[in-house]
Amino acid sequence: MLQHQFPSVQSNAAAYLQHLCFGDNKIKAEIRRQGGIQLLVDLLDHRMTEVHRSACGALRNLVYGKANDDNKIALKNCGGIPALVRLLRKTTDLEIRELVTGVLWNLSSCDALKMPIIQDTLAVLTNAVIIPHSGWENSPLQDDRKIQLHSSQVLRNATGCLRNVSSAGEEARRRMRECEGLTDALLYVIQSALGSSEIDSKTVENCVCILRNLSYRLAAETSQGQHMGTDELDGLLCGEASGKDAESSGCWGKKKKKKKSQDQWDGVGPLPDCAEPPKGIQMLWHPSIVKPYLTLLSECSNADTLEGAAGALQNLAAGSWKWSVYIRAAVRKEKGLPILVELLRIDNDRVVCAVATALRNMALDVRNKELIGTFSPVHSVSVFM
């Protein structure tokens, strides 16, 4: 009946399959074995909107859940991902856009499909969903309308999909970092939600977790991190050493006292050699990103968002890259250390672990280490042990 000559019959058949397979993994597997996934994928290029709606609804149910990875791979092998992208590009129907992005979100939980999803969908999800629904890029919309867009199901689905695929490894992170407008729009969603009920939403959680993943190993995986020379590193580390140690032994043993590096920054004044305002990938490591993360940590009640924000700061403050030095100084300047210390008391092991590791990285800065101890000597013992 999915191949019937009348669109109404095709639509009803797809809708029946959607109902039939809901919550029933055995029926989902049987539909796959009978070739139903290929027939439903073929309907994505149908001329009728109602057929699109029913086919997408059936596919969304068929690929829901980790137990149905075989269905997800079957959909991919049927050319389903490019077909979904074609439909997302051409349709203006909001319900269909929600269904398409819902299918993609379900598919993205399958490890084998994460890179194919990035290759086929990253550009369209960014340009057709995330940027316009974020309100970023000089949107003329009123603030209340922007919040409504932020809470839309299609944005929630798209960010959920990209959150899953952002964990697929170095190449996935590289592609997403280099995707024009993605970082800007994700950060805009977060900033727009601060101070509103949206701060605890799934969409904000997804955005924070994407940025957390993209902040991982920035110094090692970006050209900006790889171009840092030994002299620059020595100067920056000297800037973090205590005055007595710096005068007596330099950074790496007995050396002549260096002049203050022009790249040192203590959280006050303009950043050395930094274009203002930051754009694109630069926003991932620029110290201005510290403030929204700290606001989330102090105001949000969503544990997954708290873990993501703490994890992002943990990643950014790791190591001796100059931007890690700047991030540690910025957290101190924005009075973020007591916020992090207070979160050690929260009754959530994953949040506490992320916060404790972030504090360890912050303590690479000597002034931060001293301050952390004064805020909570008892809790700080666990951080530095």
TrEMBL record:
It comes from the Eukaryota. SMART domains: ARM (SM00185). InterPro entries: ARM-like, ARM-type_fold, Armadillo, Plakophilin/d_Catenin. PROSITE patterns: ARM_REPEAT. ARM repeats lie at residues 35-68, 79-122, 335-372. One of its GO terms (biological process) is cell-cell adhesion. It is found in: Cell junction. Keywords: Cell adhesion, Cell junction, Repeat. Its main location: other. Gene3D superfamilies: Leucine-rich Repeat Variant. One of its GO terms (cellular component) is adherens junction. Belongs to the beta-catenin family. This is Catenin delta 2.
